[in-house]
Design goal:
The protein has helices spanning 15-26, 28-35, 66-70, 88-97, 107-124, 140-147, 162-173, 178-187, 196-199, 202-216, 235-245, 306-326, 367-377, 393-396, 413-423; strands at 5-11, 38-45, 61-63, 77-80, 101-104, 128-129, 153-159, 226-227, 247-257, 261-272, 284-291, 295-302, 344-345, 352-361, 382-387, 402-408, 411-412, 429-438. The protein is α/β, with parallel strands linked by helices and 442 residues long. The structure holds L-homoserine.
Length: 442
């Protein structure tokens, strides 16, 4: 059934919700010409907020109860921007069940319930779009789902969290301390409601799980994404890597998809200063997708912030509205998901990469020999050793000992960890070994 007017219900009027309302109010002629239909913001809903002021033809009703939106038979598209698991999960499932199409930015929900959400959408004949869930304003979901549909996606790696990229940038380039940099990200509206999600790599893990599930057609579960955030990252290592090794520290999400196995991890990563990611500033994200036919394709843009995320949400709304107006929405599912396709996770300990190890030791003959003995025992091959003079600014900054940095050739994670565990027990070692991963063969 064709429709001249497509009705939208917006649930969640926080930073992104208000941006979506603003775009629907101020850019309406452009949006409607792209949708080929009139688009009416019928409802805005926020449990705690205020009504969105009416503007032009958009005179939405306001409610604090999302059920008013989902139960209204006139609503065609529900925009879910409340975030978190509940009531978002119940709301999305209820909307799909009543054949309302959904646009969401909720990566946490998608990562945790990918299977349930995909099946619910398939069974309802309604569509679930989620461009804003990953990469803010970057059209990476459409890019993978449609633009790269001809490819088997073998690898995705990227800077997936704007807040941590912003924090790392301000700390290293502007010398800002961690707390001040985080405050800046929060004030700019990049950070999650609970910034621990950003700092501990949880948000990036959500996004990686969504990208990997989308790209593989299987469900890559959140618990199979190994995760390490930036909270325990010492700015000393960030400076040392840049000054002495020409490497830049970024929080990366990396997934490799084999025919029946995969690996997925999020952790601070040292990359060469010449890599395109090295210059990704502030809240920007960058994502490489490697397809077997297209090779590397890079996506780049603002990964966080009100209007970048709103751009992605409203793009979804336009594409949904276009299909609703033509009476074709939901005739074919948006993503491919087959519960029978299962990929097995490769344990993190078995993954191979180069490693950065910083030991803090007493300055005495034979210390290096003691350390390298344990690396040799685990068959971890050293590619270079750097000892920072205590007279230098970098050396003096490490209290209680002398920093010795060892870079390894490619070695399995588990062996390096075992070596570090043993080294940490040595009497000459003064602090726990700092262990970072190097990716320089991207
Ligand atoms: N907190 C997220 C980030 C917002 O910093 O990237 C966008 O998902």
């Amino acid at each position: 059934m064709k429709k001249d007017v497509v009705n939208i219900g917006l649930v969640g009027c926080g930073t992104v919700g208000l941006g979506v309302a603003k775009l629907l109010q101020t850019n309406l002629p452009v949006l409607e010409s792209k949708a080929g239909a009139k688009m009416r913001l019928l409802w805005t809903c926020d449990k705690y907020g205020k009504p969105v002021p009416p503007r032009g033809v958009q005179k939405p009703r306001f409610t604090r109860d999302w059920r008013d939106v989902v139960n209204d038979p006139h609503v065609d598209i529900v925009v879910e921007l409340i975030g978190g698991y509940e009531p978002a999960r119940t709301l999305v499932l209820a909307a799909l069940k009543s054949r309302k199409h959904v646009a969401t930015a909720n990566k946490a929900l998608l990562a945790k319930y990918w299977g349930e959400m995909s099946v619910a959408a398939q069974q309802s004949g309604a569509l679930l779009y989620f461009e804003a869930a990953v990469g803010g304003g970057i059209p990476v979901i459409q890019g993978i789902n449609e633009g790269l549909a001809a490819n088997r996606i073998e690898k995705i790696y990227g800077i997936l969290n704007g807040t941590t990229n912003y924090i790392l940038g301000r700390m290293t380039e502007d010398g800002m301390d961690f707390a001040a940099a985080l405050k800046g990200a929060q004030e700019a509206g990049f950070a999650e409601a609970d910034p621990t999600f950003d700092i501990e790599g949880i948000d990036a893990a959500h996004k990686l799980a969504v990208l990997a599930s989308l790209a593989s057609g299987a469900w890559i579960r959140l618990e199979d994404v190994t995760r390490e955030g930036i909270s325990s990252l010492d700015v000393w290592d960030v400076h040392f890597a840049r000054e002495r090794l020409g490497m830049v520290t970024k929080l990366l999400g990396i997934v490799e998809l084999g025919k029946d196995r995969f690996s997925a991890r999020v952790h601070p990563t040292l990359i060469p200063g010449t890599h395109p990611f090295a210059n990704v500033p502030r809240e920007y994200n960058a994502i490489f997708v490697h397809g077997d036919a297209a090779g590397d394709v890079m996506f780049y843009g603002k990964g966080a912030g009100q209007m970048a995320a709103s751009s992605a949400v409203v793009s979804d709304v336009i594409y949904l509205a276009r299909q609703v107006a033509n009476g074709t929405a939901g005739q074919i599912p948006y993503v491919t998901y087959n519960p029978a396709v299962q990929l097995k996770p490769i344990p993190f300990d078995q993954l191979q990469c180069r490693h950065y190890l910083r030991f803090t030791t007493v300055d005495r003959p034979g210390v290096l020999a003691q350390i390298t003995r344990f690396l040799a025992r685990q068959k971890v091959s050293i590619s270079s050793v750097h000892q920072e003079d205590t007279e230098s600014a970098l050396g003096a900054a490490v209290r209680g000992g002398v920093p010795i940095v060892v870079l390894t050739h490619k070695a399995p994670e588990g062996r390096v960890r075992e070596a570090a565990r043993n080294i940490d027990r040595l009497a000459v070692v003064r602090r726990k070994t700092v262990h970072l991963r190097i990716e320089d063969s991207f």
